Amino acid sequence: MLRILTAILRDEKSILNVSTKVQGYAGVNGLTLSLPVIIGRRGVEKSPVPHLNREEIDGFQKAAESLKATAMDVGIL
Asked: Residues with Cβ < 8 Å from 27, sequence gap 6 or more?
């Protein structure tokens, strides 16, 4: 938490892994996942999109669907 706050206060534009709502990344929408983002004075300033090959996209989508199903099972989504 301190590292994130420092990046915001100093407007560092640091790449940090934080939980953020995913919209349209590799076909995934509406889930909150920990991904690398650029943190600056305004908080999450940009979500860089790393290039994923087909196998990585399929794995990411499968993991997201699993997390979504679990969230729905426990009633938090």
From this structure: 57, 61
What is the CA angle 8-10-12, rounded to 5?
75
Q: How many residues does the chain have?
A: 77
Nearest residue to 12 via CA among 49, 44, 50? 44
What is the per-residue pLDDT for 50? 82
Whose tokens are 């999109």? That residue is 49
Helix, strand, coil content of the chain in percent (nearest 5): 35, 40, 25
Q: What is the pLDDT of residues 10-63, one digit of tens each?
A: 999 999 999 989 988 899 998 999 999 999 999 999 988 888 999 999 999 999
**Does pTM surpass 0.85?**
no
The two structure tokens encoding residue 70: 């679990």
Query: How far from the centroid of its chain's Cα atoms is residue 53's Cα?
Result: 18
